[in-house]
């Protein structure tokens, strides 16, 4: 048997892969036991069947696999944490490189830097760094891969105080499309380094990331849950925007899930779940958090005030509610959310019949906005809010039915045409153009032409070579 992504590509054989990679890097094909587990990824409703899943043990294994796939013209997909919301970590007929074996981390505690494997999760990294009172900013969920979140930009609970994940990226070891291992940073191949900071998986397989570590030990964080009203939705966004940069808020406006932490009478009703992190001086936390708590008080009182002093890494624990559900969603940027937009959002969330529906509003600014828009391939530095509207359904067909609702609501909330690549639900040209505006697009295409002229790495929000 040979592996080929479509009739126009040539093929690479499993025997060839096995011979080149050796026993330390297992190759699993549809004929093998363990194929179902090997191809499993996080999002529901995605059922990709790669021709082979390769689990390289090290950088050389990645390089050999890429080399073979490149020479054969086979499609490559890259899987790190497996959380791509539209299932990028696997692709029909592709050679999937599963990087989960590259999960090492080397901390230079005194030098405040870390080398992390391309397949480590944000949670594992943050726990290891947290043991030394250190952190690198990732997102809000520990199971997300450092690989995907970093290459797309990375917005999370430390964004306003320490910037995006890419703002702490110091360098990377990359296997490029021709199977070469390249070290890049601000001085070595600076265009490639620029492109990796937001350009996604377009430019190669990152086998190791070098990050800055910051002193972040105890923070005040957790969930502040309150009834959703037009005033509370707009008020949380405004309070988070006006707060000192030490405060980051990710507001989920959603139908409350039937979780024990939510009072039973609120299950299924629309609430604001403000996932909050104060990483400034602990004795200033109450002052910084007071405006948010005031919003809750004016909305009738907090349904839950879970804001506690805790190690930062514990905020990444826990994940989305499990179970075989499928989401459809749309990302957008906005300058803010005023009361009229908030009233519309509330009315839409209340009237939709999707089993769960939500708008996530992440307030940016702070250190995110301190970086010039052309300094990284993530260019939306001026946006005050990155959002996402989502409807959850039991299966893919039902989820597709909510697409017009999702689009209309995102259109009402958005402030322009931009898209955040990590929240995008498709990898088409329109999405890529929205993610990479103007000069960013042109520069990315030129970098792509240099490093991947044949577009081997196209299982992503794709930037075609210039
Ligand atoms: C529950 C959940 C929570 C999330 N929270 C946040 C958040 O707080 N902030 C945020 O910014 N995003 C968040 N995201 C979005 C997330 O950042 C993206 O989905 C990201 O692509 C996931 O990365 P991954 O490695 O887990 O996924 P994968 O599916 O394994 O990888 C996605 C793609 O990234 C590329 N890639 C990954 N690793 C590498 C590598 N080492 N080298 C080359 N290419 C690579 C490949 O193109 C790959 O197909 C969240 C997603 C989910 C599902």
What does this protein structure show overall?
With 466 residues, this protein is an alpha+beta fold. It has helices at residues 14-21, 35-39, 59-72, 122-130, 146-152, 159-162, 190-196, 230-242, 285-298, 339-351, 396-401, 403-413, 429-435, 438-451, and strands at residues 27-28, 52-54, 76-79, 95-98, 105-108, 113-117, 134-135, 169-175, 181-185, 205-212, 214-215, 218-227, 247-255, 270-278, 304-305, 308-311, 326-334, 356-363, 385-393. It has three domains: 14-100, Uridine Diphospho-n-acetylenolpyruvylglucosamine Reductase, domain 2; 105-215, Uridine Diphospho-n-acetylenolpyruvylglucosamine Reductase, domain 3; 218-423, Vanillyl-alcohol Oxidase, Chain A, domain 3, CATH 3.40.462. The strands form four sheets. Strands 12, 13, 14, 15, 16, 17, 18 and 19 form an eight-stranded antiparallel sheet that branches. Residues 1-10 have low confidence and may be disordered. It comes from Krasilnikoviella flava. Keywords: FAD, Flavoprotein, Oxidoreductase.
Write the layout of secondary structure elements.
Blueprint: H1 14-21, E1 27-28, H2 35-39, E2 52-54, H3 59-72, E3 76-79, E4 95-98, E5 105-108, E6 113-117, H4 122-130, E7 134-135, H5 146-152, H6 159-162, E8 169-175, E9 181-185, H7 190-196, E10 205-212, E11 214-215, E12 218-227, H8 230-242, E13 247-255, E14 270-278, H9 285-298, E15 304-305, E16 308-311, E17 326-334, H10 339-351, E18 356-363, E19 385-393, H11 396-401, H12 403-413, H13 429-435, H14 438-451
Parallel strand pairs: 2-4, 3-4
Antiparallel strand pairs: 1-2, 5-6, 6-10, 7-11, 8-9, 8-10, 12-14, 12-15, 12-16, 13-14, 13-18, 17-19, 18-19
The structure holds flavin-adenine dinucleotide.
């Amino acid at each position: 048997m040979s592996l080929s992504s479509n009739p126009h590509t040539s093929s690479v054989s499993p025997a060839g892969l096995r011979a080149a990679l050796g026993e330390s890097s297992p190759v699993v094909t549809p004929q093998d036991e363990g194929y179902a587990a090997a191809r499993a990824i996080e999002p529901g409703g995605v059922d990709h069947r790669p021709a082979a899943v390769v689990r390289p043990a090290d950088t050389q294994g990645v390089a050999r696999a890429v080399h073979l796939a490149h020479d054969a013209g086979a499609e490559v997909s890259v899987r790190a944490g497996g959380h791509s919301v539209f299932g990028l970590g696997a692709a029909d007929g592709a050679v999937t490189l599963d990087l989960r074996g590259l999960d090492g981390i080397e901390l230079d505690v005194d030098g405040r830097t870390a080398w992390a494997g391309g397949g480590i999760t944000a949670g594992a990294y943050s726990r290891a760094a947290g043991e030394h009172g250190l952190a690198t900013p990732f997102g809000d969920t520990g199971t997300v891969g450092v690989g995907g979140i970093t290459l797309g930009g990375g917005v999370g609970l430390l964004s306003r105080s320490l910037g995006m994940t890419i703002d702490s990226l110091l360098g990377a070891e990359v296997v490029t499309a021709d199977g070469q291992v390249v070290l890049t940073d601000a001085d070595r191949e600076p265009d490639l380094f620029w492109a990796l900071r937001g350009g996604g998986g377009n430019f190669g397989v990152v086998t190791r990331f070098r990050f800055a570590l910051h002193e972040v030990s105890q923070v005040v964080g957790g969930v502040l849950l309150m009834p959703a009203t037009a005033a509370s939705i707009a008020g949380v966004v405004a309070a988070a925007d006006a707060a000192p940069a030490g405060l980051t808020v990710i507001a989920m406006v959603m139908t409350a899930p039937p979780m024990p932490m939510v009072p039973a009478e609120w299950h299924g009703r629309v609430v604001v779940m403000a996932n909050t992190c104060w990483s400034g001086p602990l004795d200033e936390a109450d002052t910084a958090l007071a405006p948010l708590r005031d919003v809750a008080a004016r909305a009738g009182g907090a349904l839950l005030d879970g804001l506690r002093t805790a190690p930062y890494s514990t905020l990444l624990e826990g994940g989305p509610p499990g179970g075989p559900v499928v989401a459809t969603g749309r990302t957008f940027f906005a300058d803010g959310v005023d009361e009229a937009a908030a009233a519309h959002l509330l009315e839409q969330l209340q009237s939709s019949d999707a089993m769960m529906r939500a708008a996530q509003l992440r307030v940016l600014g702070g250190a995110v906005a301190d970086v010039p828009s052309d300094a990284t391939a993530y260019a939306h530095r001026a946006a005050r809010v990155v959002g996402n509207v989502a409807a959850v359904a039991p299966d893919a067909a039902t989820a597709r039915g909510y697409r017009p609702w999702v689009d209309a609501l995102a259109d009402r909330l958005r402030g322009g045409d931009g898209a955040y690549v990590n929240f995008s639900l498709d990898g088409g040209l329109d999405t890529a153009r929205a993610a990479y505006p103007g000069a960013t697009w042109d520069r990315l295409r030129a970098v792509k032409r240099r490093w991947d002229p044949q577009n081997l790495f196209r299982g992503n929000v794709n930037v075609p070579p210039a």
